[in-house]
Amino acid sequence: MSPGHDVEFTEYMSARMPALRRLARLLCQDWYLADDLLQATMTKAYVHWSRAVSADNTDAYVRAILVREFVQERRSGWVRRVRLAGRPIETAAEVLDHEGALDLRAAVAALPPRQRAVLVLRYFCDLNVDQAARALECTPGTVKSQTAKALSALRESVGLAYDRDRDKPREVAESA
Amino acid sequence: MLEHAIAELFGQQAAEDPPPTRASVTAAARRGRSRRRRRQAAIAASPALAAGAVLAIAFGGIIPAGALHPQTAPTKPAGSASQAPRLFNPLRSYASPGWLPARQSASHFVAQFSRLEDQYSGLTGVGLTFYARGVCRLSSRSFACGWPRDPAAPQLSLPRVDLGRPIGDLSGHAAYWRLSSGPGIGTLTWQYATGGWAMVRVPDLRDALRMVRSLRFGKAAGPSAAFAFQLTAVPADWRVNSVTTQVDDGVRYASSFSISAGLVDTTLGLVTSPRQVVMVETGPEYGSSCESYFRHAAYRRQLVEGNEAFVLLRPQAWDSGAKSGLCTVVDGVLASVITDGRSGQSATDLLAHHMRFLGPDPANWTTRPVVRS
Q1: Which residues of A touch B295 (CB under 8 A)?
Q2: Three-state DSSP class for B111?
Q3: Looking at the structure, do residues A123 and A173 belong to the same domain, yes or no?
Q4: Which chain A residues are Cβ-neighbours of B129 within 8 angstroms?
């Protein structure tokens, strides 16, 4: 990589790191694992930096690296996982929340990686099906089916608190 | 709706106060550079390289490996009358600045046949790069550095860099200054000797000029990197083609190096991509625990000539071009050796018969990591 690109990479990553880290945290549902994922993503982005800067949308390119790295890593469980030194981060205390949201949080964390990635891309990054498919390198049909499976699994897990016909979580007391 | 609740949950999680991060852009760039070198070596070893070799024979341009002698460093600063080296010797210091901006210190060096790069701790992105003669090509106000006729080149990035505005002569050649699009860093580009371009990256032009004028060449550039062990009695056509150096506690030591074998051609510009056969990582940067170094890798423990070695069970998963690999710690110094199939030697063979460890004291380390038979 040319020195100019090195500088460009450093400037870009320094600026985008917080946002990428939050996205990684949503995918991993854990800050500690998110840092590992972020480190692996930045390393990969460095290797492919020429392509990243010449892409139509560098942010989307780097985000795709992060999401694919997440799915691939969880799928392979193999050596290319980056593990950073240092003790585990003490995570911030969970925000007090109503019971339904806590159930939902646990249910999202329990989803398979690919399904969780689809949800994050669609409901946090606001990507449409085609954009999410490009990010995950799969077909739009796969995105739709993974979304449906994820939503179905979540409904099953938190069925008492959520109902597909309502706009808001149903109060536990009300449903009892 | 459930979708709404999911979006709300993600929004809440994203708004949490994050704990301090362990991720580092600098570390990513460092590791990325290392991975990039391996990728380039892998590309060079592809069939495209074979095609290039055939072409080279047709042009009569192949230089037998034994005839390749990277130019030794000049003993005085290069001037307009001197020619830049056609090849650098990655094992020898070529040039170093006698002056650095405040809060800067030497931290990281990469030396290859075609390019020498120094990075400095302190300000992000501050560094110095020398290219061998013929590596960079100028066109109007921009230039690109790489080997134009390397068959692997189309797969590698050779971005064009804007030279910026001319600022007069340095060393008898035109020099240029460009402020990057990002904040705080400019690039001074000049010919340090005929045919050889160099770049220094600092925030301020005056600092850049001061750095350039303070450059020391040859022996005055400082000591060569020290290696914690030596590979002895290796094939005659093995040579070190890339060295990455760190400075730790005042000692400049090699943290990784790669060895190539076979013919090297300078006329077609294949010198940057000879066949890489062995990749070595060693030193404090990697800690002193092979369990940690090979964490998440599948390995078996094996005693090799009295040394405990962690031998990779699936070396290709560690590095796509790898045929064998191991990690061992001798006298507190970690060494990882990855070999390519064409090296004709497995990593365990190298450990058993060719690796000579020089102990934990850097005073006993060597500047000759490879001794050929």
Answers
A1: 79, 83
A2: strand
A3: yes
A4: 3
- In this predicted model, what pLDDT tens digit does every residue of B198-256 receive, in sequence order? 999 888 899 999 999 999 998 888 888 999 889 999 888 888 878 888 877 778 888 88
B161 touches chain A (CB under 8 A): yes
State the residue for tokens 């085609």: A130
Q: How far is CA A121 from CA A21, A160, B10, in A?
A: 14, 26, 11
Interface of B with A in 40-69 (CB under 8 A): none
Q: B296-353, pLDDT tens digit by residue? A: 788 999 999 889 999 999 888 777 678 899 999 988 888 999 888 777 789 999 999 9
DSSP string covering A33-48: HHHHHHHHHHHHHHHT
Enter the tokens of residue A9.
């990479």
Look at A124 and B20 and tell me if their CB atoms are within 8 Å: no
pTM here is 0.55
* Minimal Cβ distance to A39: which of B11, B27, B117: B27
303-332 in B: which are within 8 Å (CB) of A? 317-318
Condensed to tens digits (0 to 9), the pLDDT of residues A1-19 reads: 566 677 888 888 888 888 9
What residue of B is the nearest CA neighbor of A88? B22
User: What type of residue is B307?
Assistant: N
Contact A2 B161 (CB under 8 A): yes
Q: Which two tokens stand for residue A151?
A: 């939503």
Q: Choosing among B2, B12, B142, B190, which should be mutated to test the A contact, i.e. which has the most A CBs within 10 A?
A: B2
Of A92, A118, A142, which one is at a domain's C-terminal end?
Answer: A92
Q: Do residues A106 and A122 share a domain?
A: yes
Q: Domain ends where: A32, A57, A92? A: A92
Bridge partners, B138 (sequence order): B143
Tell me, yes or no, whether A49 and A101 share the same domain.
Answer: no
Check whether A154 has a pLDDT greater than 60. yes
How many domains does chain A fold into? 2
Q: Are residues A79 and A162 in the same domain?
A: no
Look up the CATH number of the domain holding residue A149.
Answer: 1.10.10.10
